[in-house]
Every structure is written in C-alpha cells, then in structure tokens.
Amino acid sequence: MLLLPANVEQEIREHGAKDYPHECCGAMLGAETSAGREVRALYPLVNRRDDSPRNRFSITPEDFRAAERAATQRGFDLLGWYHSHPDHPARPSEFDREHAWPWYSYVIVSVEAGVPRDLTSWRLEDDRSKFQPEEVLPVRAASQTTQD
Ligand SMILES: [Zn+2]
C-alpha cells in the first residue's frame, strides 16, 4: 500500500508533463507507517540517458547515493522511484523490470500528448521475475496522518 499525498501526486504529474516527450524520473522519500508506506517528499532526478530519453530512464549510482543522502538529511527513508511513460501505458516495461530492485515502490505516470493520465505503483518480486501492482491510496497532505 502506497500512501500518496495529493500534493506529491500533483508534483509527479507536473514533472511528467514538464519533461514530455522525454521520461522524467525521481526518488520518493518518506516513512513506513502502520497504515502503509507514506511518501512525504520527492527528489527529482535528471534523466541522464541521452541515447533514448523518450523511453528509458536510468538511475546512476550517483543518483542513488544522492537520493539516499537527501532522505537521511530530512529524516526520511528512500521508499522508491517514479518515472513517466510518454505516450505509453502506466505499466512497467521489460527494461524497467531488468533495472529494478525488489522492495522499492515504482510509480509510473503515463503522459499522453503532454497530459498526465494514469498513475500506478509496482513492487518487484524478490526473485525479480515480475512486478506486482501496489495499491495507491491518495491521502490529503504530506505530513497528515490518516485522520479524516
Ligand atoms: Zn518505464
């Protein structure tokens, strides 16, 4: 279960629209709570692949360390990664699976003709054979708890 505050979801969508027709990518920072995995902040990354920025995103070891550092500095955990699929469905590609790690949440937003559409989240199985969908639960604001 991924708890996604409305403002954070909006930020992911806007990043996807801004980088269209290229893929955007970034890290998701937050905390594991009793209610689920709650994203509290994003750490946008630059898509460094210049061979095929339209349909490939990659996270370099430097990106990884910088995202972990940003999480630690803010008292958060590194929970996962988000990226966009320009003019493609919000489903992980084979490339995504090959380059993913278990445990992390992978949020994908499809961006059709510049307009953000579906947003999904996925977790890679421990044997890395396939992704399983992860439920995304919208929550109201970044630091609020489940009280409604
Ligand atoms: Zn992808």
What does this entry look like structurally?
By secondary structure, this protein is of the alpha/beta class. It has one domain (2-139): Cytidine Deaminase, domain 2 (3-Layer(aba) Sandwich), CATH 3.40.140. Helices cover 22% and strands 40% of the residues. It has three helices and eight strands. Strands 7-6-5-4-2-3-1-8 form an eight-stranded mixed sheet. The chain is globular. Zinc ion is lined by residues 83, 85, 92-93, 96, 108.
Characteristic terms for this protein:
alpha/beta, Cytidine Deaminase, domain 2, binds zinc ion
Biggest sheet strand order reads 7-6-5-4-2-3-1-8
User: What is the CATH H-level superfamily?
Assistant: Cytidine Deaminase, domain 2
Helix % is 10-25%
What is the C-alpha radius of gyration, as a whole number of Å?
Answer: 14 Å
Bound molecules: zinc ion
Q: What is the total number of structural domains?
A: 1
Percent strand? 35-45%
Return residue spans where pLDDT drops below 50 for at least 5 consecutive residues.
144-148
CATH domain class name: Alpha Beta
Please provide the count of β strands.
Answer: 8
**Biggest β-sheet, characterized?**
8 strands, mixed
User: Treating each run of at least 4 consecutive H or I residues as one helix, how many helices?
Assistant: 3
How would you sum up the global shape?
A: globular
Structural class: alpha/beta
Distance separating the two termini: 18 Å
Q: What's the helix-strand series?
A: EHEEHEHEEEE
Stated plainly, the CATH topology is called Cytidine Deaminase, domain 2
pLDDT averaged residue by residue: 90
* Shape-level CATH architecture: 3-Layer(aba) Sandwich
